[in-house]
């Protein structure tokens, strides 16, 4: 990778010359522009950084920055404002809100300017690396969707046909071989579906609106109706507010937490309570159960993707809680757990409160609901 390329934009010739000379001494490759119009022509060469003066005679630096950031072909270029006259805090705020990546006031030590430029370039390259990593993940998702699911489906179908046709005539060892084949294929399908759900969720955007949390919980309970009834689950619900969130994402969070409470209930019928309270500008939700609990040393691990604390005796692939936390964080909230082995678990998450024109919802029709009835 060659030296970073900088476009030095300043209508004051002596200052521009001195800055360019200094930057070259620090190892940068430098081009110059004497005004905003010339700068807009030269950004077509895709410099890494534009050092942009604010006060210029034709187009001021704010307008040049707007045009650079507003053009998809140049929007990824780093813009660093430099000004000897616009030095107040409000000037910095205006410049940064206008789209600049940083704002420095002169006079500035050459070492500080060079270090700032390098730091901005490091941050941008890290963003680019993350973007490439995400693209690799999307390509892996495509591979899973198209190149692995079809042969796996064929394995499952033909194994099931063998079971249907010859299952009654197999000896114990042959029966075990076929069961292992079917079990392995079904588990692999669960893993693939888990990866696809995780990947899709992490790459789709969220539109946040004012969402009645009770509606999201009702939708989750509807999805899990059979499981809740079969387990004899008792679900009690307090007054749930309206929050700023994505309806589908919040429904998935409730669904995963309820499903886990049922799955890890232990020998007794699941007892689950869901409450909410206002904390500052957020709403804190609590989903509490009386199941087998989680030892404190595993509280961090359970939120990592594909990490499971239990073996094959409890179904799953280990993405539910990781997905929940990422969905909550994507909506501006936080998620954590408090639990002890054998003492049940309390999962907490926060979401921004709804707009001032929306009121908290009253008790939902799920309150004191007995799902087994």
What does this structure look like?
With 373 residues, the protein is of the alpha/beta class. The protein has three domains: 5-108, Response regulator (Rossmann fold, 3-Layer(aba) Sandwich); 133-203; 209-370, Histidine kinase-like ATPase, C-terminal domain (Heat Shock Protein 90), CATH 3.30.565. Helices cover 47% and strands 18% of the residues. It is built from ten helices and 13 strands. The protein has helices at residues 13-25, 36-42, 61-70, 89-97, 110-166, 172-203, 213-223, 225-231, 247-263, 320-330, and strands spanning 5-9, 29-33, 49-53, 78-83, 102-105, 209-212, 234-237, 242-245, 271-279, 282-289, 335-339, 345-352, 369-370. It has a six-stranded mixed beta sheet with strand order 11-12-10-9-7-13. Strand 9 (271-279) and strand 10 (282-289) form a beta hairpin. The radius of gyration is 29 Å and the shape is elongated. 28% of the residues are buried.
């Amino acid at each position: 990778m060659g030296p970073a390329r900088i476009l030095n934009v300043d209508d004051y010739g002596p200052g521009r010359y001195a800055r360019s000379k200094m930057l070259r001494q620090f190892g940068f490759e430098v081009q110059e522009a004497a005004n905003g119009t010339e700068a807009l022509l030269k950004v077509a060469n895709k410099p890494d950084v534009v050092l942009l003066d604010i006060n210029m005679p034709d187009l001021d630096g704010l307008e040049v920055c707007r045009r650079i950031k507003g053009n998809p072909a140049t929007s990824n270029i780093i813009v660093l404002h430099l000004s000897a006259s616009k030095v107040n805090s409000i000037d910095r705020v205006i410049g940064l809100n206008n789209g600049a990546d940083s704002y420095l006031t002169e006079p500035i030590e050459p070492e500080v300017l060079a270090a700032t430029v390098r730091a901005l370039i490091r941050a941008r390259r890290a963003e680019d690396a993350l973007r490439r990593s995400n693209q690799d993940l999307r390509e892996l998702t495509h591979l899973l969707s198209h190149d692995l699911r079809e042969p796996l489906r064929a394995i499952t179908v033909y194994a099931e046909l063998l079971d249907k046709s010859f299952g009654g005539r197999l000896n114990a060892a042959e029966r075990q071989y076929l069961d292992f084949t079917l079990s392995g294929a079904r588990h692999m399908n669960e893993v693939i579906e888990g990866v696809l759900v995780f990947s899709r969720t992490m790459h789709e955007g969220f539109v946040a609106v004012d969402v009645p949390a009770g509606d999201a919980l009702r939708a989750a309970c509807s999805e899990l109706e059979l499981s809740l009834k079969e387990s004899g689950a008792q679900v009690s619900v307090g007054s749930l507010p309206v929050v700023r969130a994505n309806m589908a994402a919040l429904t998935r969070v409730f669904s995963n937490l309820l499903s886990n409470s049922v799955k890890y209930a232990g020998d007794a019928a699941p007892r689950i309570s869901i409450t909410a309270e206002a904390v500052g500008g957020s709403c804190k939700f609590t989903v509490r159960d009386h199941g087998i609990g989680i030892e404190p040393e595993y509280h961090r691990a359970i939120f990592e993707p594909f990490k499971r604390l239990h073996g094959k005796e409890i179904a799953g692939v280990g993405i539910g809680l990781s997905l929940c936390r990422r969905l909550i964080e994507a909506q501006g909230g936080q998620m954590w757990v408090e639990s002890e082995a054998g003492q049940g678990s309390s999962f907490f998450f926060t979401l921004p409160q709804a707009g001032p024109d929306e009121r908290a919802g009253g008790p939902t029709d799920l309150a004191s609901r007995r799902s087994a009835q």
